[in-house]
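Chapter summary example: a protein plus geranylgeranyl diphosphate.
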Amino acid sequence: MTSEELMEQLKQKTDEVEQILKEYLPAEEGLQKTVLEAANYSVNAGGKRLRPMLMNETYRLLGGRGKEIEPFMAAIEMIHTSSLIHDDLPCMDNDELRRGQPTTWKKYGYDMAVLAGDALLIYAVETGAKALAYTKYPDRVCKCLSILAAKTGIYGMIGGQTVDVEMTGRELSREQLDFIYRLKTGALLEAAMLIGATMAGASSIELTIVEQAASYIGLAFQIQDDILDVEGDEKKLGKPVKSDEKNSKTTYVTLEGLNKAKEDVEEISARALDCIGSLRGKNEFLEELIRALVTRKK
Ligand code: GRG
């Protein structure tokens, strides 16, 4: 696939995700309208839509076809957005720009931003459960709701963020940093791909391989995030650079240096591709998407 073809497909698939999101976002009405506006503002602010895309492509790779995956595609983007809203709060990273727009707390106030994050987090579960209306396999939907909760919660993303916040400004070992990255960033990508595989009826061996691939993608993705925080372009990223330095954070780059970090992103992504290549079926777009994450500028 040429890079032009990849860009074309990427645009088309991003548009598909946007359409699905539109279908599942809550209506801005009722006395609680403000929090609904704040939640929708944050989701609609843009973003690469990587998690729903990875979910859908994994679903397709393993033979899944149908609308049953769509509620979960919307749900994972809602959870991801809720984490970004909270991550930007003054009590966390204290950032004012996200996805090229004022952060939710800058636009709607600290109180509404906390509530919008909470609202999206639990509305995601309500949304995922809507897959029951489209599937012949309600047991798979139950499994996916459980994956969604576990990978988001205290043994997943929130657990990772807890250690990240607690250790900010302190020296970290590679083991501690790996723990934070595996949970804070990796867990949600694992949820995305595991849900895609589960809804497609993957076997337990396939699920293990998919989880491993997603874990590699999560690690490579977070290291690239660290690299972009040092040498990225604020305009392309849609958020401030040098945020880690500002918050005195130990990152993969501060521990290993820029060059080693770049080499490792490539090597870890290659491991993810090996995992994907060992599965039945082929999905060229998914493979190209994983390759593109190594060179991403945003
Ligand atoms: C309320 C659910 C909830 C969570 C609170 C704040 C928090 C716990 C967790 C933060 C997790 C976090 C922000 C991890 C960083 C992951 C990461 C690299 C995000 C950037 O993702 P992109 O680049 O963003 O996919 P776009 O904007 O493209 O969607």
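Key point: The beta strands are 97-98, 101-102.
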